[in-house]
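Audit log entry. Action: structure prediction of a protein-small molecule complex. Ligand: zinc ion. The ligand was supplied as SMILES and no pocket hint was given, so placement is left entirely to the predictor. Protonation state taken as written. Sequence taken verbatim from the request; no trimming, no tag removal. Recorded inputs:
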Amino acid sequence: MDTAVFETPPSTSSRIKSEARRRPSRSEAEAAVRTLIEWAGDDPDREGLKETPERVVRAYEEFFAGYDEDPVALLATTFEETAAYDEMIVLRDIRLESHCEHHMVPILGRAHVGYLPAGRVVGFSKLARLVEVFAKRLQIQEALTSQIADTIQDLLQPRGVGVVIEAAHQCMTTRGIRKPGVSAVTSRMLGCFRDDPTTRREFLSVIGNQRNAPHET
Ligand SMILES: [Zn+2]
């Protein structure tokens, strides 16, 4: 597998405020899908396609459910103050399903999230949910990686955060340059994950060991 590795630059986690703009109605969204079907060259009134606009809009509700959720609120209301645990916490192989903002096609892969707490910890399921809230939006992988790391840093104020995402982009595999098997790897390291080589190595070895382990099927 070819792998492109690039470290994401620091970025703001600010997002377009979607509540400021009028949201089209469901029937407007269905009409838009109908237009795309016609534009592709098919007949939206034929039997197999009759329910398609409705189904596509329902699917979009799932794909982009992240716009209706506030990632800050998700962590802010659930962290626990605890001085008792100060070892690295890593959640690896979080299933990642997102959509690229350039072509609106799937980005599929895995996210690995680690942090070294400084008094505040959050449940594993909340970390996985945080990944999902950002993934279920239109994304580029670099921004997605930064948003997850920056939110954990802001809310939990740990000693450091590391986020690594490995993903395949269907806009690269099914169209354009057609490079199946290529996955892009992005990372964002903050605090001691950036500055302390030992911490960074420990994190990378925890998430990397998985690849060398035999696969159970
Ligand atoms: Zn794309």
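Audit: result stored. Helices lie at 26-40, 52-63, 71-76, 124-135, 141-156, 170-173, 192-195, 197-212. Confidence is low (pLDDT under 50) at residues 6-15, 212-217.
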